[in-house]
Design brief:
There is one protein chain. The protein has 389 residues and is an alpha+beta fold. The protein folds into 2 domains: 221 residues, Multidrug efflux transporter AcrB transmembrane fold (Up-down Bundle); 78 residues, Alpha-Beta Plaits, CATH 3.30.70. It is built from 14 helices and 6 strands. A 4-stranded antiparallel β-sheet has the order 3-4-2-5. The chain has a two-stranded parallel sheet with strand order 1-6. Strand 3 and strand 4 form a beta hairpin. Helix 9 packs antiparallel against helix 10. It is elongated. The two termini are 18 Å apart.
Amino acid sequence: MTDDKNAKTSSVASRRSEEKSKKHKHGFTHALYTGEISYGFIQRRKLWYTISIIVIAISLLGLLVRGLNLGIEFKGGVQFRSPAHVATSTVDDIRRSVLSSGVPDMDSTEVVSLGSNAVQVQTRALDNEETTKVQGAIAKATATKTDSVTYSKVGSQWGDQITGKAIKALVVFLVLVMLQIWAYFRHWKMSIAALIALLHDLIVTIGIYALIGFTVSPSTVIGVLTILGYSLYDTVVVFDKVRENVQDIQKRDYTFAEGANRAVNQVLVRSINTTIVGVLPVAALLFAGAFVLGSGPLEDLGLALFVGMIVGAYSSIFIATPVFTQLRENEPAMKEHTARVLRRRERAAHKGPQVTAQTVAAEGPGDVTSITGSERDQPRRSTRSERKK
């Protein structure tokens, strides 16, 4: 009989050791997915809302105070191109030469290198006399003939057309997004939550552009529209897991908020990994455009993508899902289900845990203490062979 007890105890210990080794093997990601580790993203939604409101307020303040640094395509101007042997100081030398050309209000002049054999200069709108002066200043700085410096005047009408088309594309995109999410998830409140997250990403990205002072060019417009698609993808991934966890929620022993929070924890690592993998090449693009090649379009596109992808990953976790959860929790059926789950837990807490023969057999004699919550000193009972003696 003693041997049987020892064998059973050894079996229980071996099973526990295997379970511990499995937990250790799977690690942090598995613990998040199974719910062993859970962070209260939904429960702390007021904190995320506050942070987002502050960031949006700063972005809007930047737009109102500093405004956007519109490129020549949107406000009009003159674009010069000149052959040059581009060195480290070439861009600064050309800019100083243009500023000292005698033409007023040239502080907004932008000079970028086009590879190693040419430069591009963009200025405000100029008349013919001012254009000739700037052309000569560029030729002097680059040590080339005046005729080699070409220029073209860009009107603001083209920029107005681009702006109008971009706004139309944005409106159509948002409408199609709402319809697509409603059709796929069969719930209009998911569409509202996704739309709020997209608007959040749009305002923050444009606000950061205003604060940093980067030039808004057609590349910026392309980048902004691109990051909206990325943000939508991240949000749909989270929503899909939320739908899986809250399906038949009335039959579950957890609330809607708890199911949604578990979904966020389950996709957290995936979202972080996806964002890192996407941001790294974009960061390289931004670095190359800003510091290596001096390319304006690469710089504008890289910043829009870099900021938008990070903000999109944030909004899918901290904005879209909490907003959708809050909208669903206000439904009468969800309120009733939440109250029922809480009442059931309260009754279970008052009733206390019970120890059954099956529990002891499954967990082993060493676990009775953990179930009952207290230790009891019982006198040792003698065996039948000892009583016969």
